Write a sequence for this structure.
């Protein structure tokens, strides 16, 4: 690493509110790529003699995600389809990811590009992902709501009710080891609680076979940069859980 790169590196840790470098040797180990090899134990492999009659259909995570996207179709299930959204923002990343991020709903940039978390908050999320040695291609990123609410207002319960089953299908297809719920809205939706994120973060929940870590939304961090430190603590936990599950 040359001097410029090192300066960049330190600047970016600073940006995330990280002030010290851990001497814990665990931090020198990088989490390997999250692409599962064929026959990965997370795939629900059914032994041949257990094949139910008449057919056994095994579908990969990628296929299940594709099928979910097809079922959404050109969705008109809730009112958001007629409220100015340009397109459905389904999700992006590695179908076999060990780590999945769940946000609230697309904003303006996401609505234009069709990809979650590409605006200013998204760029911060990208740096947060990179801070634990991963890239956006290693993880999967989705939102509770697939269409942009007008003026970025909070999604309404009727919209959540229509849209959340698709998020659940995404989670069940990917079967991540760890889910990070970004912000109050995602955390409340997934955990079916009324507790605000300030009460939920710092804890680890069991959720659909994964560990769920609620943390602050990156858009909140843009307004309250002093909370980046908390998110860093949460991300260290995420990294620890990913390492545990790889051991
Ligand atoms: N891990 C740490 O503890 N500190 C850093 O700055 C980066 C990784
Ligand atoms: N905020 C979100 O919750 N999701 C996005 O995709 C972008 C911003």
């Amino acid at each position: 690493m040359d001097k410029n790169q090192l300066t960049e590196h330190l600047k970016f840790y600073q940006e995330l509110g990280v002030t010290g470098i851990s001497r814990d040797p665990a931090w020198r180990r990088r989490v390997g790529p999250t692409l599962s090899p064929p026959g990965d134990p997370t795939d629900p492999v059914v032994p041949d003699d257990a094949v139910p009659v008449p057919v056994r259909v095994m579908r990969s995570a990628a296929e299940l995600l594709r099928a979910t996207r097809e079922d959404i179709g050109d969705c008109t299930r809730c009112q958001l389809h007629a409220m100015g959204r340009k397109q459905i923002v389904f999700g992006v990343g590695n179908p076999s990811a060990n780590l999945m991020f769940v946000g609230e709903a697309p904003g303006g940039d996401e609505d234009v590009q069709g990809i979650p978390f590409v605006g200013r908050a998204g760029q911060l999320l990208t740096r947060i992902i990179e801070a634990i040695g991963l890239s956006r291609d290693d993880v999967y990123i989705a939102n509770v709501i697939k269409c942009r609410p007008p003026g970025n207002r909070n999604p309404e319960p009727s919209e959540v009710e229509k849209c959340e089953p698709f998020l659940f299908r995404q989670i069940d297809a990917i079967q991540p080891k760890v889910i990070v719920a970004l912000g109050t809205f995602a955390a409340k939706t997934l955990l079916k609680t009324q507790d605000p994120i300030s009460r939920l973060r710092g804890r680890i929940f069991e959720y659909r076979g994964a560990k769920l870590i609620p943390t602050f939304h990156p858009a909140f961090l843009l307004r309250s940069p002093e909370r980046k430190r908390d998110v860093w603590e949460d991300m260290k936990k995420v990294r620890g859980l990913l390492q545990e599950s790889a051991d």
Observations:
- Confidence is low (pLDDT under 50) at residues 26-39.
- Residues 79 and 104 are 17 Å apart (CA to CA).
- The beta strands are 92-93, 99-103, 140-143, 178-182, 205-207, 210-215.
- The chain has one domain: 61-246.
